Amino acid sequence: MHKGIVGRAAGTVPGYNYSPALRNAKIIWTEQNLDKWLNNPQELIPGTKMFYEVKNAQDRADIIAFLKERAR
Ligand code: HEM
Predict the structure, then answer these.
(1) Distance from the CA of 56 to the center of ligand 1, in angstroms?
(2) Measuring from each residue's beta carbon to the nearest atom of ligand 1, which residues come in under 6 Å?
(3) What's the pLDDT at 3?
């Protein structure tokens, strides 16, 4: 479901039951925002229901590079 995530608006996959926090977040998934999100979702978007954190910066960079590779 994260195919094409880089560059798209947060909380906009049709039919997914987002938290109000993410649904109402007016952010675009840039590389910078994805890095903040993966490090600490609750800090970027307080009230989100994603709690998974990737604390290693290289791991975050690798994940974001992978997400960018996936065609829209
Ligand atoms: C490297 C792994 C992961 C990546 C790259 C990732 C990335 C993301 C992104 C970008 C979103 C926002 C989606 C959107 O705007 O449409 C999201 C949402 C979410 N993720 Fe993750 N995620 C990861 C792992 C996980 C894990 C392991 C869990 C659960 C254990 C999880 C639970 C969620 C939930 C529940 C949401 C919806 C949050 C909300 O509605 O507030 N994620 N994730």
Answers:
(1) 17
(2) 2, 5, 10-11, 13, 18-19, 21-22, 29, 37-38, 48-50, 52, 54, 63
(3) 81
Q: Helix, strand, or coil here: 9?
A: strand
The atom number, within ligand 1, closest to the CA of 11 reads 15
Q: Contact at 8 Å (CB) between 35 and 60?
A: yes
Domain containing 7 equals: 1-72
pLDDT of residue 1: 79
CATH code (residue 8): 1.10.760.10
Rounded Cα distance between 65 and 15, Å, is: 26
Mean pLDDT, contiguous 10-residue spans, the chain (72 residues): 90 96 97 98 98 98 92 59
Which atom of ligand 1 lies closest to the CA of 47? Answer: 41
> How many angstroms separate the alpha carbon of residue 50 from the centre of ligand 1?
5
* Total structural domains within the chain: 1
Atom index in ligand 1 nearest the CA of residue 9 equals 15
